[in-house]
Amino acid sequence: MAMTTVMVLVESSDQGRCAMRAAFLAARRDGGHVVGLYPVPPSERLTPQAMYFSRASLEVPGEDGLAMLDRAERDGGAGVEAARHAFEAVAAGLGATLLERPPNPGKLTAFFRSLSDGGPEAVAARGRVFDLVTVQQPRDDPEHRVRKLLRAVLFQAGRPVLVVPPFARDGQPASLGRRPLIAWNGSARAARAAAIARNFFDGAREIGILSVRTRNGAGPSAPSAPSAQDLADYVAWHDMKASVIEVDLDGHRLGDLFLREAMRFGADLLVMGAYAQSPFRESLTGGVTNHVLSHADLPVLMTH
After folding, report:
1. Which of 8, 130, 148, 209 has an alpha carbon 20 to 30 Å from 154's alpha carbon atom?
2. pLDDT tens figures, 264-287
3. Average pLDDT, the chain
4. 5-42+80-164 and 180-303: same fold?
């Protein structure tokens, strides 16, 4: 399955533009279609009519009420239009044609949509009809809005998620999947991530498979689980070269090891299963997924 359709959550910030560019990079190899989805936040959902009735109930004087209505009318669409402008500017810069519905004319296409019910469940539901969902990294996210959307997609959309950090140089990754690193423990979650990531590996020069040995020397999640070498053999059957990288946990945080080895390998994509524990338990224990989400400086492909 090629990454033909990609949904990206649109933010008009610089970091949001990085996610949009990565979404086009993921789709571009197949002449795919990118939909920019703007989940309207609660602060922008109050319609002029709702504002009118809420102010009327508070007995706001007529002229003041009209002024509030005017402001609500202006501000209610400002976020949507800023997001639309940001998405369409990125699309134009990458040579995409605006097109709402298929069939795809064999070239890169794009379309912008806003979602008035911009809650996490509604966003996850929209993601179910795409090959990939792209989200900006929830690094500067004081209200945890992006993190909540990302978790909802991971748990409820049934689709892989590409998490994109901000890039200092020209705002986009130079490549995506040329040197991927797979975090492997033999679990079903890691296997799903590795299988889906194959769609990025067509132009891969080398694939790294990272196995972390714990204190007792164990690497895979269970004695009967396939090893990193088993995965390397699987990759070789698909005519791709893979290198096994084995490291000891040795008191380090697992998330730190993932990111350190990704840097050493020169990876342009980290592939991993997400949330072996619940998000709540991860927040208490400082789990691997939350650590990588907050600190990765390369795109991360995640599945649950």
Report:
1. 209
2. 999 999 999 987 655 545 454 458
3. 82
4. yes
Find tokens 């890039």 and name the residue.
167
Q: Which residues of 74-106 are buried (b: 16+ CB within 10 A; e: fewer)?
A: eebeebbeebbebbbebbeebebeeeeeeebee
List the structure tokens of 48.
Answer: 């002029």
5-42+80-164 has CATH 3.40.50.620 classification:
yes
pTM: 0.84
Per-residue CA distances from 140 to 13, 89, 137, 146, 166 (Å): 11, 23, 8, 9, 10
The domain defined by 180-303 folds into: Rossmann fold (3.40.50)
pLDDT in tens, 35-67: 999 998 876 655 545 444 444 444 555 556 556
Tell the residue number behind the tokens 């194959």, with chain if given: 198
DSSP-based three-state secondary structure for 234:
helix
